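Journal club prep — side note

Before the paper discussion, L.F. wants everyone to see what a predicted structure for a comparable chain looks like in token form. Sequence:
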Amino acid sequence: MTVSHGSPEPHSGERALVFRLLEDYCAGKGLRLTAGDPHGHAGLIEAPSGKRWFFKGTRFDINPLGASEIAGDKAYAGKFLALNGIAVPASYLVSSADIRDGRRPPEDVLDFAEEQEFPLFVKPNIGQEGQGVMRVDTYHTLQNALHILAKNHGQLLVQEEIKGKDLRVIVLDGDVLCAIERQPPQVTGDGVCSLAQLVDSHERINAADGRIDFELSQQGLMLESVPARGQIVSLLPVSNLSSGGSAQIVTDALAPEIHTMARLAAKTLGLRYCGVDLIIPEARRPDTAAVVLEVNASPGLSVLARRGDNEANLVREIYQKVFAEFLSA
């Protein structure tokens, strides 16, 4: 099975959102902006004084390099968050070299799975936007997922599943700029169309993503299956907008303890600007209001901006604040 996934690229001839917003910002500040490629995926900003700033995608010189590297490594980030008293999912790190060529996973991995109980998640230790994340519900599918992902990734995480409300909270210098509640990509049956047809008609789903087959099989479904009218079928085990998930802005409704946890997670990892991904568990836990899944040191907002005028205005406001801090350094 091939697992393919990627961030949506700008349409032909269209420059990246960050670059377009930077064009307006730099013009108003008397700064010179030079694109590194036709789509504006990277660039250089120059002040009249000769000072220069570089950026690539949504990565700006605003977070320390070491902090960004730690945040990008899920195992390291989880360890340092837990050391500071922040709840994180139970995880087990697997070296892909130990399981390539169809080798059986180490017994410790199977013991971890037995202790945590299924379902579990298997994901690349380094990666963003839900790339490669798979949900497994048996020892057999766990081994299959590990072998599939080991082909392209050096380290993998086996992680407990925590059911609940999925949030991304954007933090800048200790201030919460935005919070969104996310839902995984889903289709609703009409009693006529097959899942393959429903997936093909979904505007934001990559129908070639092999994880869809894998996810459906664990629900006893195939792409040829015809779901009943009104039946909701989840297509992927992630809620990232870049994977076709949906979202609504919930900043004003965010509980104070979630504000506090998001700010603490950013501070713990030494990040000025980041997206903190949390789960508010369905089953209340006595030790925490939420569990931090990961912290993204360069959160992308372009997919959110395309969801409507309110979202686009919010994203513009966020980037205005980020640019101001980025270019004041």
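L.F.'s comment for the group: The chain has four domains: 11-57, 64-89+162-184+239-329, 90-161, 185-236. Keep this in mind when we get to the figures.
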